[in-house]
Amino acid sequence: MEIYPYKFEPIYKEKIWGGRSLERLFARALPEGKRIGESWELADLAEGTSVLSNGPSAGATLTDMTAGLGSDLLGAAGALENGRFPLLLKLLDANDRLSLQVHPDAAAVEQIGPEAALKTECWYVVESRGGAIYKGLAPGVTREQFRSAIESDAAEGVVRRIECAEGDFHYLPAGTVHALGAGLLVAEVQTPSDTTYRVTDWGRGREIHVERSMQCIHFEVAGDGAPGAGGQTLLVTEFFTVSRRQGPGGQTVELPEGRCAALMMLAGRAEVRHAGAADPAVPLAAGDTVLLPAALAGPQLAAREECSWLEVLLSEE
Asked: What digits encode the pLDDT tens for the residues 190-248?
């Protein structure tokens, strides 16, 4: 399998809270008549696996690429224990608010067993139409008060509501009770897991998971800070690092070499170039995601106009 910048077909997920903003913002050809809540841009899960859309290896799955390329793709990061790619990237379009939910951390996964997988994530706000998120418990709320609020359908009163603007960034470590509010489109970077326990669904009638939620939620007070944040770096975790980068039109920016990196374009148009290829340029526009294998030589981003993007690096620890 050849080494070059990889682009993938998006995997669209219809959700009751979804909308059509991906069509409006990024000229996506969405499935007709469906409310698309999630676009999985880079995924290697049983619930959805990305398929390569460009270059000589088009049609390969990310699962096969991870197994076949090994360190040429992942560098020192390595695959998961099940052999799958260790990152999940999404675009989320909330036309209505999502369920209030929580994901398990490692301790909860050990208690729950094989049905669960650790899920730590973060959100970068691409667009806000007056939206807000729910993040963490309101000050002073105890475990007993929270359970009572769930059982009386009053959970909204015991969690924090935070107004959001374009460019805001929120770290949501496993165990944080949270929900994306209506009117937001976010880029989500997370560990590869689809384990979600609903605290409340705001009366929409879907199943909720009271006992599992109580098992997973962190009730100690946590701040809003993101570990490792500074300069262009938004977050450093044991799983991935996220940075926001930008380039003026007509200029070229060096990209990570020797490490597996994913770029999520936020604005503008550009192309990714690299050494040793007859046709090295891979075009990018706002809304696109590209995966740069660790063995890619001399990667650069050439900005056709002023652009910005999220740069996600796999942890090599």
From this structure: 999 999 999 999 999 999 999 999 999 999 876 788 999 999 999 999 999 999 999 99
DSSP the chain: ---S-B-B--EEEEEEEEESHHHHHH---PPTT--EEEEEEE-EETTEE-BB-SSTTTT-BHHHHHHHHTHHHHTTS---TTS--S-EEEEEEESSPPPEEE---HHHHHHH-TT-----EEEEEEEESS-EEEEEEPTT--HHHHHHHHHTT-GGGGEEEEE--TT-EEEE-TT--EEEPTTEEEEEEE-S----EEEE-TTS-----HHHHHHH---S---S--TT-BTTEEEE-SSEEEEEEEE-TT-EEE---SS-EEEEEEESEEEEE-SS-SS--EEEETT-EEEE-TT--S-EEEESSSEEEEEEEE---
Contact 178, 75 (CB under 8 A): no
In whole angstroms, give the CA distance from residue 94 to residue 247: 29
Residue 160 annotated among the catalytic residues of the structure: no
What are the tokens at 221? 């007070």
Residue-wise pLDDT tens digits, 267-291: 999 999 999 766 668 999 999 999 9
Could you say which of 198, 212, 245, 304 is catalytic? 198
Query: Full-prediction pTM beyond 0.85?
Result: yes
Domains and CATH numbers, the chain: 11-216 (2.60.120.10), 233-314 (2.60.120.10)
